[in-house]
Amino acid sequence: MSVDLPRRFLIVATGVAAFSVRAEAQPSAELGSILGQYADALRAEDAEAAVRLFSATGSYTAPGARAAVGRDALLASHKRLLATVQLDLAYDVREAAKFTEVGWLRSTATVRLKVLSSGVESTSYSHQLVVFEPESGVWKIHSYLSAPAPAEVAR
Questions:
Q1: CATH classification at residue 52
Q2: Is 17 within the bounds of a domain?
Q3: Is residue 82 situated within a structural domain?
Q4: Are 146 and 61 in contact (CB under 8 A)?
Q5: 5 in a structural domain
Q6: Domain ranges, residue 66
Q7: b/e burial code for range 20-42 (CB count within 10 A of at least 16 → b)
């Protein structure tokens, strides 16, 4: 099997770029702080404050749901969520890094929720991968992806 020259160049260039970007990564407590502000906003049932942490083109994807993309969709989805449940989130940031144009973090969360219509309370656990981007000099959430996790993994 042979690889043509343009494709070989692309593969090598991608590897060099990935190595160069990785070399510039900085650990980031700042990104974890933004995630903490997001949890605070949800605990306070403040959808507007939660959505202000997202970039204009930001997205949120919860398990089993369509992605909410853009601030209008984010606000609508957060308002729907907070109209049905009361949330208490605790994030554990496992790793995070910032580059010049992008940042990311990987975390686990313990989510205690109360269904408002029935009063039923439960606890669930999840993994998050959150991508950040600077917007007018301020780091914002660009993409928030969440997936369920077993309790023993999230603790």
A1: 3.10.450.50
A2: no
A3: yes
A4: yes
A5: no
A6: 26-154
A7: eeeeeeeebeebbebbeebbebb
DSSP class per residue in 108-148: EEEEEEEETTT--EEEEEEEEEEEEEEETTEEEEEEEEEEE
Is residue 103 exposed (0-12), middle (13-18) or buried (19+ Cβ within 10 Å)?
A: buried
Helix (H) / strand (E) element for 35: namely helix 29-43
6 domain residue, yes or no: no
pTM to 2 decimals? 0.81
- Tokens at residue 127, please? 């993994």
Please name the residues in contact with 82: beta carbons below 8 A apart, sequence gap of 6 or more: 42, 45, 47
CB within 8 Å of 138: residues ≥ 6 apart: none
| 132 in Cβ contact with 104 (< 8 Å) | yes
**8 A C-beta contact, residue 66 and residue 80:** no
Q: For 67-119, what is each residue's pLDDT tens digit?
A: 999 999 999 999 999 999 999 999 999 999 999 899 999 999 999 999 999 99
CA distance 140 to 142: 6
- Residues making up the chain, counted from first to last: 155
Q: Which residues pair with 110 in a beta bridge?
A: 90, 125
